[in-house]
Amino acid sequence: MALDPAVKNLIDTLNEQGLKSFEQMSIAEVRGVVESFSDLQAPNADVARVVDTVYPGPGGDQAVRLYIPESETPLPIVVYIHGGGWVAGSLDVTEQPCRALAADAKVIVAALSYRLAPEHKFPAAPEDAFAALNWVVEHAADFGGDGTRVAVMGDSAGGNLAAVTALRARDTGAPALRAQVLIYPVIDGTARFPSREENAEGYLVTTAAIDWFWEQYLATPEDAENPYASPAKAADLAGLPSTLLLLNEYEVTRDEGVDYGRRLADQGVPVQVELYEGLVHAVYWMTGAIPRSAELHGAVVEFLGKQFSD
User: Fold this and answer.
1) Residues of the chain under the 50 pLDDT cut
2) Residue 253 contacts residue 184 (beta carbons within 8 Å)
3) What pLDDT does residue 1 have?
4) pTM higher than 0.85, yes or no?
C-alpha cells in the first residue's frame, strides 16, 4: 500500500526542515527530537486523577505517573513503558497517549520512567521495568487498582521492555499478567529480516538508526543474544500472557515482530497480530498529526477490554 498521505506530508515537512537521522545526532539532540513528538499529539483527555510518585529501582528511586479514571470499583492496571530507543523518552512526551488509554479503556495506566542509555546500559532498563511492575502490583490497592488484572505495554524500545518484563514475570513465577501489548517492538538485536532492507531509509527511523540505538543500549555485543535484551532470543515462549502485536508496513522492525508473533502462536500463546498498511514507526505518539494513529489506540482499547472483562 502507498504511504499514508498524512505520514507522507509529515515526512516531507521534516525533510524540508533538514531533520537528521537519529544516528547522526548527539544524545542530547535525540532526546530533544523525541520530546518534540508531544507537538504532534491531540489535546489531553481528562482523567479523574494523575498521581506522580516513585518506585524503588535497583539504581534508586524512579518516577512513575498514575493516570486514574473515575471508578467506584478497583480497576485493571496497564504498566506502560515508553519508547525512545532506550536513550530518550519521558513521562511528559507520553502524557497524551497515557491519558487517552486510561480514559477510553477505563484502566489505571502506570507509566514508568527508567534509567536511560548510554549512561546506563543493559541491564539497567529491564531491571527497572521489572521492579516497577512488582511495585505497581504490590501497591495496587493504594490507588484503586486490581492487582490481579495487570498488563504490560510498550512501544518501540518500550515494547522490547514490555516483552522482557513479561518474560521475567513468567520465569520468576510472579507477578501474574493478563496480557502484553507490544506496539512495533524492537525485539531482536541481531535481526536480519527483509524489512531491514526494504524500509532502510525514508520512513522516520532508519536501519542505521535502529543499529545505533542498539549500540547505545547494549554493554557488549554479546548482550544481543540475551533474551532479557532481545526477547526474540528466548527459546521458550510458552506460558506468556495473551499478546497484542501492532506492526506497521513501513517499519525496519516489522518482520521481527511478525516472526515473534508466529513463534508465540506456535508455542500456544494466544496472540493477535495487526499489520497497518501505509504507516511508519512512532505513529502511536502522533495522535494529532496522523489520524490513523486512532486505529492503533482503538485496537489496544478493544483488546484490553476483552482481557480484563472478568
Assistant:
1) none
2) yes
3) 79
4) yes
